[in-house]
Every structure is written in structure tokens, then in C-alpha cells.
Amino acid sequence: MKAEQTFTIKQAAEQSGISEDTIRYYEKIALLPRAERKENGHRIYRQEDIQTLQLISCLKKTGMPLEEMRPFLTVTADADPAEYPELVERLKKHRENIVSQIDSLQQVVDFIDMKLEAGRYRRPDDSCSTKKESQEKPPASTAQNNYF
């Protein structure tokens, strides 16, 4: 029988993208279960722990507060979402917020692109540019018009 693979805190940090200090903090606030220890006191992490850390990292990138993550961390990866309709609903709402943030950021990118493009037509040293060319710029998108 093959022994289960275990990882050091350094390896867990590398695989999850979460620092060792932060992993210790997550254990301290009980976001993560306390890690098992070797006889020498060093922490031992299993693949499930790495997956939990990766989930925390993913949710953190979305801006979800740590306290809101707790319920999601109690559900196993192979669980049927139908058994947790309240969590599914919360995740759907969180997703809607993220999509809204993406839309807002896309408006900012569109606006910046428009400003950069407009600046290109105003350069006095551009001998190839004429007044007519600058008037033929494409109209601003709907998203860009939100800024005016």
C-alpha cells in the first residue's frame, strides 16, 4: 500500500501561493484546521490541505473576506452542490459582484485606451497625421461614453 504524500509548510506555501506566515495565521484563526505534526514538531500537510489553501487563495483574489470563506471551506470538493443551496446562492451573488467589477474595470481600460489613442493624433511631430485623420477616429464605445 502506497503511503500518503505529505508536505512541509514551505512546500504547502509554494503550491498554494500563500506565505508560510499566512498559513500559520489561518491555522491560528481556525480558518484551516491545525496541521498534524511530526515527532520533531514540524507541520505536516496533505493534498486536501493544499487544495483548501488553493481555494482560500482563489477566494481571496476575488475580494471575499476571510469570515465569508468559512462556510465554503467546510464543504468537501466532491460534495453535491444541491446539498448546500444557501452556499450555492451566496457563491452566485459573489460571482455577480465579480462580473460587475470586471465590467467596471473594462470601462476604465476602454477609457484609457481612448485617451491614449486621442493623444496619438495630437502629437505635433507626427508629419503623417492630418486634421482629417484625427476626425476619422472611431466613436467612443458605450462604456467609454459613461465617463462623459
Automatic annotation (TrEMBL):
Provide the species name: Paenibacillus montaniterrae
Q: What is this protein called?
A: MerR family transcriptional regulator
Enumerate the UniProt keywords alphabetically.
DNA-binding, Repressor, Transcription, Transcription regulation
> What phylogenetic lineage does the species belong to?
Bacteria, Bacillati, Bacillota, Bacilli, Bacillales
Q: Name one GO molecular function term.
A: DNA-binding transcription factor activity
Question: Compositional bias (Basic and acidic residues) spans?
Answer: 122-136
Q: Where is this region: Disordered?
A: 122-148
Q: Which residue intervals define the domain HTH merR-type in the entry?
A: 6-75
List the Pfam families hit by this protein, alphabetically.
MerR_1
